[in-house]
Design a protein that fits this description.
Number of domains: 2
Distance between the termini: 23 Å
Number of helices: 5
Radius of gyration: 23 Å
Largest sheet: 8 strands, antiparallel
Order of helices and strands: EEEEEEEEEEEEHHEEEEEEHHH
Shape: globular
Structural class: alpha+beta
Strand content: 25-35%
Helix content: 10-25%
CATH architecture of the largest domain: Alpha-Beta Complex
CATH class of the largest domain: Alpha Beta
Length: about 350
Amino acid sequence: MFLRNAWYVAARDEEVTRVQHAATILGERVVLYRMIDGNPVALEDACPHRKVPLSLGRIVGDAIECGYHGLVFDCSGRCTRVPGQDKIPPGARVRSYPVVSRHGLVWIWMGEPARANASDIFPVDHADDPAWGSDSGGVMTVACNYLYITDNLLDPSHVAWVHRSSFGNSDCEDEPIKAEISAEGVIAARWMHDVEVAPFYAPHVPFKGRCDRLQHYEVRFPSHAIIRSVLAPAGTGGAGEPVHPDALLMDSYNFLTPIDAVRTRYYWFQMRNFSPRDGALTKALDDGVHRVFSEDRLLLEAEQQGFEHQATPKIDLAADRAQLLFRRRLARMIAEEAKPGAAAQGEPSAISAAAAELRRDA
């Protein structure tokens, strides 16, 4: 159901403090906190004695103490104290997960610890570029399977109906979508020429009149996406064309962490090439994006319910090709990971092997 040898977002940075923070990730209960030096810790959230969540205990130095009988576990998951006895039982330990702070988020590796490599965490372009601004982003829980959201993030066409007052308009209805293979996932993209600027972008474009617009929707394994928006003066944009100096550019980063089979934690933030230090604008964009994603949540939760109660088979459309490519390859990767011996050290990860498989699918 889930790819485990991968990085997922466990929490926003500000959620992980010197007070324990509980989360469920891929169906596993995890407790997060920070050591005295500020580095994050992630442990199995269940004392091995009575399986009471450690998140109900307290932080003691760099360790965590169970709130039921006082067993203490260090940041590696090793039990260092059992009140009332000197001998530590051999099974007195909890799982420790590799965890890293990056991009204002705390990332957790849910698979084999020896295979965790922080350089594989999703990169953010322009993160250190003073000409680009960023918003603080947001998080919401969506009551649906994460694959319905990856479908949505590979579907540029839905903005014409779901987001007509923000990201979309009638010009977004009929332009064909091209599915492409990337090294890490799948891209659904299209250029729309001589179209009206969508309402969300209209106050911010530095030119007058209609535009050429790129919708680049890319989802990378296991469940993270970048949506690139380019709005250039009409007649200046297109595949292979240099970016017009007056073009509005916005990159939306979207990180999906399955809670379980029917709930997903959705994290996001945006980068933009205009007004980098305008705090009021950043707040307005934050609020606007949250409203837009709430529109998605309404439809996605309805989709989950629809499939749980379906009475007739579903159909696929031509615009679904990118979604089907992504789902098919991810299912193979999950199956390959589950094979005996698949986690052996030195063996290529499922993600690094994906590109060749995808090209065959294409």
